Amino acid sequence: MASTTVLFPSQVTQAASTRRVLLLPSTNPNASYVSFPKLRCGSLRSTRQELRPRAALQVERQDSVKQPSSPPPSLPYRIGHGFDLHRLEPGLPLIIGGIDIPHDRGCEAHSDGDVLLHCVVDAILGALGLPDIGQIFPDSDPKWKGANSSVFMREAVRLMHEAGYELGNLDATLILQRPKLSPHKEAIRANLCSLLQADPSVVNLKAKTHEEVDSLGENRSIAAHTVVLLMRK
Asked: CA-to-CA distance for 129 and 80, rounded, in angstroms?
C-alpha cells in the first residue's frame, strides 16, 4: 500500500507568509502528495501595502529631525606621534634641531631638511588633530624653498597654545649611522627647548645607529621619531 505525505494547511500558511515554500521529496519512492486548495493571501498583501506608507513616513520624520551638533571634547591630555626621514646627499648642510652638524652629507629637502624639527612639528599637529606638516607647509609652495624649519616649529607651538594646551613632555629618537651626535646633543636639546618654550626637564633626546642596515645604516638617510604629550592649561 502506497504511503502518503501530507503537508498541513498551517504549514503552508506559515511558508506563504514568509514568501518561501520548500517541498522536500520523501525518501519513500511510493509516497504521494495531497494538495490543498490555493490559499488567499490578499489579507497579507493588503496589510503590507498599508504598512509601507507608515514606514516611509516614520523614516521621513526621523530624517527631518537633525541631531544637535556637539562641540569637540575638551580633553585634558593629547598624545601625538611624528616621523620623518630624509635622504642624505654629499655637499648639503646637515641641520638637526636647528644646529648645523659637521658632516660630508646633508638632507635633501624642499626646506632646510631638519628631520628632527619636522618630526616634532608633525607630533604636535597630530596631537591637536590637525593636518600634517606637508599639508600646512606644502613643498609645492616656492616660499618654503630652503626655509628655516624653526618657522614651522613656531607655528606649531602657536597652534598648540591657541588650542589651550602646553607641552607636558617630549621624547625624540634620531636614527643615523654617522656622524656621532653625542658632542651635539645638548646644543640640539637646548635649541629645541627654546623653540618649544619648555623646561629642559620635559624634553628628552636620544640617538641610535641602524647597525649598518638599509639606507639608514649605510649613511644614505636619516630618520626621527617623536612622541609628545600635550596638557590642557
From this structure: 9
Q: What is the pLDDT of residues 15-67, one digit of tens each?
A: 444 444 444 555 555 555 445 455 554 554 555 555 455 544 454 445 444 45
What is the pLDDT, as a whole number, of residue 45?
Answer: 52
3-state secondary structure of 208: strand
Helices (DSSP H) in 72-184: which residue ranges?
115-128, 133-136, 150-162
Q: b or e along 209-230 (b: 16 or more beta carbons within 10 Å of the residue's beta carbon)?
A: ebeeeeebbebebbbbbbbbbb
Distance (Å, whole) CA 180 – CA 176 = 8
Closest CA to 109 of 128, 85, 133, 74: 85
Residue with cell 618654550: 197
Tens-place pLDDT, residues 66-91: 454 555 568 999 999 999 999 999 99
Return all residues near 144 (Cβ < 8 A) that are at least 6 apart. 110, 111, 137, 138
b/e burial code for range 173-197 (CB count within 10 A of at least 16 → b): bbbbbebebeebbebbbebbbebbe
Count CA within 13 A, CB hemisphere, residue 34.
8
- What is the C-alpha separation between 66 and 31, in angstroms, rounded? 62
Kindly report which listed range (97-101, 121-125, 141-145) carries the lowest average pLDDT score. 141-145
Determine whether 9 is exposed, middle or buried from the number of CB atoms within 10 Å of its CB (0-12, 13-18, 19+). Answer: exposed
Residue from 105, 115, 111, 116 nearest 136 by CA: 111
